[in-house]
Automatic annotation (TrEMBL):
It is found in: Membrane. Keywords: Calcium, Membrane, Repeat, Transmembrane, Transmembrane helix. SUPFAM superfamilies: Cadherin-like. Pfam families: Cadherin. InterPro entries: Cadherin-like_dom, Cadherin-like_sf, Cadherin_CS. One of its GO terms (molecular function) is calcium ion binding. The lineage of its organism: Eukaryota, Metazoa, Chordata, Craniata, Vertebrata. Residues 4-38, 39-143, 154-245 form the Cadherin domain. CDD domains: Cadherin_repeat. One of its GO terms (biological process) is homophilic cell adhesion via plasma membrane adhesion molecules. This is FAT3 protein. The gene is Fat3. One of its GO terms (cellular component) is plasma membrane.
Amino acid sequence: ISGYSLVVQARDSGTPPLSSSVTVNVDISDVNDNSPVFTPANYTAVIQENKPVGTSILQLVVTDKDSFHNGPPFTFTILTGNEEEEFTLDPHGVLRSAVIFKHMVSTEYVLCVQAKDSGRPQQVSHTYVQVRVIEESIHKPTAIPLEIFIVTMEDDFPGGVIGKIHATDQDVYDVLTYTLKSEQKSLFKVNSHDGKIIALGGLDNGKYVLNVSVSDGRFQVPIDVVVHVEQLLQEMLQNTVTIRFENVSPEDFVGLHMHGFRRTLRNAVLSQKQDSLHIISIQPVAGSGQFDMLFAVQMHSGGFYKPAYLIQKLTNARRHLENVIRISAILEKNCSGLDCQEQHCEQSLSIDSHSLMTYSTARISFVCPRFYRNVRCMC
């Protein structure tokens, strides 16, 4: 307890008795009576042979129950086990290599490390660090090619995480790092530690082939990453049709069914091969296990097919579509709960291009804007 606050009252013996009160604050000064504590109590680490000098091996974690002026910063010292000066320990407790280790020379080192706090008098504690030297990497990393589809409103892409590279390595202790070719960093970034791909704002319509690689420190492997950016036209939103699915998540749809369903859907609704199918958005239906897929079809001449025409095509081909995935409903107008005749129900669609939804799997990622459907009676 760092302090107490007492209210003290003095009361006299007169008639009537009179009194007065005063507050007494008692601060408890900290004495440096707690030693630093290593977590865990002892450490085990590995380093591959032939790693460059300065390679990080281990981060020591130390805490102290005393107040801040009796705790950190801590002073770290290697007491024993470093007679040949193979290791260095920086002020932040990071153990690094000071030589290039060879598995044939020595396979194990045991260091005794001391941590000293900043109090007076100083308190110390010790830990043992076992460092194993293992053979260098013998397996190349493997990575799955990634294809990313981004749908955005005209020149209004805000940027964000658009997918993640999935890479593995059969060498148990390999640490993978990801890099992107420098000239592409004006449009995209790759997190060097986890492989997340970040797109910067303002992407133009088109196809981007990213020069990404993954390295285990010895081998470097290229990864095929292709990004497709499609910009929506306002006219698309006035000619959309919604297909509703159930009992499947949007991520599973994107990863397992989207390519096949897209192909079957093209065969069902396109009148000419030159027509274009545009999947605008995929969005869960609030409060249910369903999700909606919003799409429009552009004619080769430039205009868009009307929803009524597409609905008829879909209805006729529904059995073929359900060979790929079960359809819950085909929605043209969502007049549920509105007391108006069908022809007097007006639906409008709005897109929030700054609220992106990303459905990412190992092989494919789909990024689209959130949409809102507004329905009203025109009776």
